[in-house]
Amino acid sequence: MLIETVILALLVSLICGRKISSLGELVLREFWLVPLALLIQSGVYWAAVRGIGLGPGWVSPVLDTGSYFLLLIFTIRNRSLPGVSWIFLGILLNTLVIGLNGGVMPVDPSFLPEASRNALLAGQGTHGLMASLTHLSFLADRFYLDILGWDKQVFSVGDILIDIGIFLLVFRTMGSKTTLEIKVSK
What is the domain partition of the chain in residue ranges? Predict the structure, then answer.
């Protein structure tokens, strides 16, 4: 939902008269942590889907959970920016759920097609099926959104907070509506 949130924030900002050029002035500290975290997450996901072991069984969960710590460091370094506190809180909640559930994000199986449920039962991917032993299940991927023409989305409370933060970051960074200066003559 991140891409959709960025697009929505851009559209709303432009409709409100904000300037897209203001995004060029956004300075993100330690930005390299974001692509590094995404690279780690992609590698862990790729290996899991293909059934390739990355070493002992603990390596993938540690790498996946560790990538979220990189994102937390990034948000801490950028906490003065608008919306970043929301992003931090969302990432923190997702990190807690993933860390307490063996390095996978639990997902409500009722929202998944049978093929996806079977893949998760086989240990493929970076998600796991929510069960009675799931820790912090109320923070797991338990919400579902199906908008006509878009991919179906399963998401968590943390994802919602991240999306709110991303929206605020883009909207506020694009500046306030351009105001006309009115001169009053005496």
Answer: 30-166
Q: Tabulate helix, strand, coil % of the chain (nearest 5).
A: 55, 5, 35
**Distance from CA of residue 122 to its chain's centroid?**
25
Each residue's pLDDT tens digit, 77-90:
999 999 999 999 99
Q: Give dist(CA 125, CA 122) in Å, integer.
A: 9
Q: Give the integer Cα–Cα distance in Å for 9 and 73.
A: 24
Tell me the DSSP string of 64-103: HHHHHHHHHHHHHHTTTSTTHHHHHHHHHHHHHHHHHTTT
Reading the block at residue 49, the tokens are 């889907």
> What are 128's strand-pairing partners?
106
The pTM for the full model equals 0.83
- Spell out where the chain has E strands: 105-107, 127-129, 143-145, 153-155
